[in-house]
Specification:
heterodimer; A: mainly alpha; 2 domains; two-stranded antiparallel sheet; 9 helices; 68% helix; B: alpha/beta; Rossmann fold; 13 helices; 22% strand
Chain lengths: 303, 388
Amino acid sequence: MTAFLRLLDAEIRRYWARRLVRVLLLLSLVVPTVVVAVLTARSSVKNETRETFVYSEEDCFEELPDGSSVYFPGCGDATPSETTSEVVRVDQRIDVVDDLADAVNGSGTTLMFLAVLIGASFLGAEIGAASLSTQLLYEPRRTLVWTAKAVAVGLGSALFSLAVLALLALELWGGAAWRGVVEGADADWVVARVGDVLRASGAAALAGMLAFGITGIARRTVAAVAGFLALGMIVEPALYGIFNVFDGRLPISALFAFASNSLSGEGGIDGIDSLLRAGTVAAIWAAGALAAGGVLFARREVR
Amino acid sequence: MAAIEIRDLRKTYRSRRGPVAALDGLDLDVPEGGVFAFLGANGAGKTTTIRALVGHLRATGSVRVLGAEVPRELPKVIDRIGALVEQPSFFPGFSGHRNLSLLARARGLPQARVDAVLEQVGLTARAASRAATYSLGMKQRLGVAAALLKEPAMLILDEPANGLDPEGIKEMRELLRRLGDEGRTVFVSSHILGEVQQLSDRVAIVHAGRCIATGSVDDLLSAGPSKFRVRVPGDTHETHLAAAVLEQAGFSVWADPHGEMAVDVTPDDSWRVAKVLADAAVYVAELSPIERTLEQAFLEITGGASQIAARVPEVGSEPGVAVEAAPEARAGAEGGGVDGNDGDGAQEPVTDVLDYYGGPASADATGRDEEPDAGRGTSGPGSGEVGA
């Protein structure tokens, strides 16, 4: 085994041994399970009788001085003069074809933020504990150490998301097969959803590595996470608002678009018109942050 | 080949008050095998040197460890080096065992080594506990275990006895001695000079970023002025009389009010003390050499500019011991001398440095009390009280 693979092995084990990772993974597996269980329990089609109130129209007219009258829809003190009832078909079934894509896209964003937290703290905790100095007594090639850690964060974040999304998909499929709808879930659909899961996992990997790189620069978990949030919530929207030149070129919005499949258009991110572009922009920023953090790690004196 | 070879190592830190030279042209050679102690006061440059040895900081000059240039060639020999730098740092959320296990994996070492070194440092019972719950002494043991994990040919340990209880210090001493006896090179910095004296084969003393003395422990202890304890029958008056007689005969004498007296004399000349006193009808009850401890030697060598300036040629002339004046001492000596030394090379007694009897005399060589210490009530050599 080469030196890098040995390091990577150790770093991946370090990643999964962390209590934060284990707790978040447990929560990430339990919460969707509970949600899907509730949805499955409620999954049904039923006819509901709904009462509709019919208001007496004359109660809602007011005569004006000139003899005309004005109609007030839904007038406040009107009382129902008549009640009618109608039978409505309420479909609460899990429809895996529609619901799974939404669930993956929604969960992808959440998993992306978890990856940020884990990626930043993976390095931040080691800087805080000064345990890097001990590791460098075993492998003094800092670039190797840095790369192994960054790859471990990327792989760990991707596997974390993959596990959660795969479980979510299986549970949703199971719920739909049992008490919902699975019609339309053909091979193309399966391929598309596998693609969604892989994309969301890739977004988590990029987010984790971006946060890891930012921590290499900021040297604190809190600073890196706060910086990530500030970028996404304040800096990028402000830049988009002021300079069109940044449209589709900033990291957090690109990551968000990549994780949630939100492209340009209604509710989407300006300037990001394809997932390929979103992923590429996010990857470039993650690589840049890793490179900058790596250079600082190689140059800084270790305590 | 020297296990460690350092030439003109310099490191300057920036501080608010301006640049601070932590290492100021340090030269050091550590031979292979045995225990080599690296001594120095706080801030002398020990830890900075050790951090430079393991590539944790950038310094100018040349550092070679096991023949490899640091930091460029360090990866070639890192498998043969075990190190503990400052306070050992581990991931606090992991157990001691997991911390070592991850280090072992990073180098492809068998996991059985982890249990073996934990056993070796006496941490087996707490191996599964989180490192955050370890006491300072336990963290230190874990740090030593990490250093031993690779079965290194060379150990570089920065204050390994830090935080250990007396039992732990003894165990550590025995462990390091055993490793040294096995032919490994154990380079250890320490403040506990008593331990170092029992443990080390060779010693280097660093002061103000320079190595000012190096040699075997025995050579270091035998270097410097040889002193003999002189006891005469009778009361303190007799002692003071004897001191005055010896002073008149040209000896440097240290006496205290309790009747204790020491005299600078070589073993070969010690008979002269007895003869001079006998000629003056003062008879000697005891004339015995005073053995220096490493602590005394260390304090003597690092004791300050004046003492160093006065002592350098004398101690440095001893066989097997290389002593260099501390920077401020050199400056003092070159500047015409300090504290009574006129810088012309003439030796004056350094009786205010060594406190053999528990209370420092504060007189200079001329017999003047420069800074009388009323609380201690001592009188210096040849002071006005002697022979009065």
